[in-house]
Structure to design on (210 residues):
């Protein structure tokens, strides 16, 4: 069940995934548990997250939030495309984190989403390198999701995928890219899930000693 009683925190979630695509996947947590939290409930939430994660500039995020409020087709495209892309990233990354091969249908869908976004991108130079850029007010869906799809693709093609991990915290399931020297990171955030697990262990030990 998706909890809807608390406001969406799309505009303030911790960005601790280490890759933009994983931060995007972390806009939902506790999948498959009674504590499932969904932060992308409306198209406005996607605009809020994109501004918060600096995928688009804050001014453009404000503009997009206003636009989707009055344009149902755009709102539907933004939210629907965002949730589709996020699901594919989640499935691929959680399988990799479990040491399994990412399923081909999800890879194919990610490739299609990436191609759609790159179709609206412009390659522009910055300090002796070229980068994909988008025009948020001309192609808002591609501008908000393009950098996310690109992050997923470059991670898959260039990164050490044994570093893709999933937090084992209760009702969490956040994904992250472990950059520690000996690949020892276990938690999305030590202060959140790490401390909760530690507290649980201490409580269980105390009960055993009673
Ligand atoms: Zn966690």
């Amino acid at each position: 069940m998706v909890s809807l009683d608390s406001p969406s925190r799309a505009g303030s979630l911790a960005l601790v995934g280490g890759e933009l695509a994983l931060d995007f996947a972390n806009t939902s947590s506790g999948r498959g548990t009674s504590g499932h939290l969904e932060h992308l409930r409306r198209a406005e939430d996607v605009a809020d997250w994109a501004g918060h994660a600096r995928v688009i500039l804050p001014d453009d995020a404000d503009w997009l939030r206003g636009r989707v409020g009055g344009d149902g087709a755009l709102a539907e495209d933004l939210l629907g495309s965002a949730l589709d892309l996020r699901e594919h990233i989640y499935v691929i990354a959680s399988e990799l984190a479990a040491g399994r091969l990412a399923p081909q249908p999800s890879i194919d869908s990610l490739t299609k989403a990436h191609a759609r976004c790159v179709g609206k991108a412009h390659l522009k130079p910055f300090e002796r390198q070229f980068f994909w850029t988008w025009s948020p007010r001309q192609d808002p869906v591609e501008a908000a999701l393009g950098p996310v799809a690109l992050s997923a693709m470059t991670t898959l093609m260039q990164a050490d995928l044994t570093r893709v991990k999933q937090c084992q915290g209760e009702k969490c399931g956040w994904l992250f890219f472990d950059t520690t020297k000996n690949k020892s990171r276990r938690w999305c955030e030590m202060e959140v899930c790490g401390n909760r697990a530690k507290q649980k262990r201490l409580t269980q030990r105390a009960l055993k000693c009673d």
User: Anything to note?
Assistant: The mean pLDDT is 94. The chain has seven helices and six strands.
